[in-house]
Amino acid sequence: MVCLGNICRSPLAEGIMKEKMKRLDLPCFIDSAGTGGWHAGELPDQRSIDTAFKYGINISSQRARQIQMEDLDTFDLIFTMDQSVHKDVLSIAENKDQEEKIYLFLDYAGSSNAPIVPDPYWGQTKEFEATYRLIDQACDQIIARLKKEFL
Ligand code: 4NP
C-alpha cells in the first residue's frame, strides 16, 4: 500500500487490509510505504490512528518508511493511492516484472469512480473518516478479486 507520506492513507490501507485478512484467515503479508521519506520513522498521523481506532483497528505500531526498488521484487502486488504516487512508483521500477505489479488501488478494486484516494492530510477529521470508508470498501472488493484469482 503506497501513498506520498506513509502517514495518512497507506497506514489505513495496511491496517484495514491486515485486519480483514486476519479475520478471513488468509495468508498474506501486507505492508505500506510512502514515495517520500520526510516522515520516515514516524507514527501514522494521529487522525488516521484515531479513525482506525474508532473502527477497532490499532495502527499505532506502524512506522513510516520510504518505498525502495527492492519492494517491487518482495511484493506480488503494489497498490498506489493516486496518479501522482503511481507515476513515482513506476519511475523506480527497473524492469517489466516490477512494472506489472503496480496498480492504482481503486482501479484494482474495480471502483467505478475516479481511481484516486484523496489525500486527507490538509483536511479535517471528516476527510479521514471518508478516506477510511473508501479504503475499507475497496479492500473488500480487492479481497473478493484475490479470492477469485489467487486463493
Ligand atoms: P499521505 O498524506 O500521503 O496519505 O500519507 C500526506 C502526508 C504528509 C504529507 C503529504 C501527504 N506531507 O506533505 O508531509
| Averaged pLDDT | 97
Q: What portion of the residues fall into strands of 2 or more residues?
A: 5-15%
Low-confidence stretches: none
Q: What is the C-alpha radius of gyration, as a whole number of Å?
A: 14 Å
The ordered H/E elements are EHEHHEHHEHH
Structural class: mainly alpha
- Shape label: globular
Total number of beta strands: 4
Largest sheet: 2 strands, parallel
Question: What ligands does this structure carry?
Answer: 4-nitrophenyl phosphate
Kindly report the spatial arrangement of strands forming the biggest sheet: 1-2
- Tally the helices: what do you get? 7
The level of helicity is: 40-55%
Q: First CA to last CA: what distance?
A: 20 Å
Oligomer: single chain
Explain what this protein looks like in three dimensions.
The chain has 151 residues and is mainly α. It contains seven helices and four strands; from the N terminus they run E-H-E-H-H-E-H-H-E-H-H. The protein has a two-stranded parallel ribbon with strand order 1-2. Strand 1, helix 1 and strand 2 (33-34) form a beta-alpha-beta unit. Helix 1 packs across helix 7 (125-149). The longest helix is centred in the C-terminal third of the chain and has 25 residues, at 125-149. The protein is globular, with a radius of gyration of 14 Å. It starts with a strand and ends with a helix. 4-nitrophenyl phosphate (4NP) binds at residues 3-9, 34, 38, 119, 121.
